Amino acid sequence: MKAMILAAGRGERLRPLTDHTPKPLLQAGGRPLIEHLILALVAGGYTDIVVNTAHLGAMIERHLGDGERLGAQLAYSRETEALETGGGIRQALPLLGDGPFLVVNGDIATDFPFRRLREPPPGLAHLVLVPNPPHHPRGDFALDGGRVADLGTERHTFSGIGVYRPELFADRAPGRFPLAPLLRAAMVGDQVGGELYPGFWMDIGTPERLEAYGRWLDGGSAGSV
């Protein structure tokens, strides 16, 4: 199974850090964020990885190259402007192949064991949810018996980790569009499975969270940010 890292975002909340450095190359623990993810994917058995780029994308390609030094084989899906999550995945489908594939947001930090996601999902998608962080208390989706739903009393946050079948995007033309409406439509047909992961996870969306991730990597506590 191939994997994709979403790395095309502008990183507005991390400005001015991202004015001259693409968000995936911001460092924590002496290593760029995207390298932490690539190494975790490789450890989980994912070595064939697609990276989509837009803002300062050439810098990402120059830094990572073909991925060999990290144990990976990298391919790049280049976007003139960021196509959002759905559009970015849709454009990368020729690189991802005909089977299910794993997608990971490039601005998260986690110790999730990616090897757990090697099996194809029974439906169109399988999402990893996490407990709601302080900055997102209302969550995104509900989880009921291994199925993800848009409605429910206890909602959890989408981690930015998911396995998808290409058929999820079959009716969408290329272009800029979000992923969430496709997932919600599939949920109506009971085609989205999921799990709740209680381990370490962070959305690196602010300088404070970037610093907190560095503390966690150094053996400390990330705290609540």
TrEMBL record:
<dbReference type="InterPro" id="IPR054790">
    <property type="entry name" value="MurU"/>
</dbReference>
<dbReference type="Pfam" id="PF00483">
    <property type="entry name" value="NTP_transferase"/>
</dbReference>
<dbReference type="GO" id="GO:0016779">
    <property type="term" value="F:nucleotidyltransferase activity"/>
</dbReference>
<dbReference type="InterPro" id="IPR050065">
    <property type="entry name" value="GlmU-like"/>
</dbReference>
<dbReference type="InterPro" id="IPR005835">
    <property type="entry name" value="NTP_transferase_dom"/>
</dbReference>
<keyword id="KW-0808">Transferase</keyword>
<keyword id="KW-0548">Nucleotidyltransferase</keyword>
<dbReference type="InterPro" id="IPR029044">
    <property type="entry name" value="Nucleotide-diphossugar_trans"/>
</dbReference>
<protein>
    <submittedName>
        <fullName>Nucleotidyl transferase</fullName>
    </submittedName>
</protein>
<feature type="domain" description="Nucleotidyl transferase">
    <location>
        <begin position="2"/>
        <end position="116"/>
    </location>
</feature>
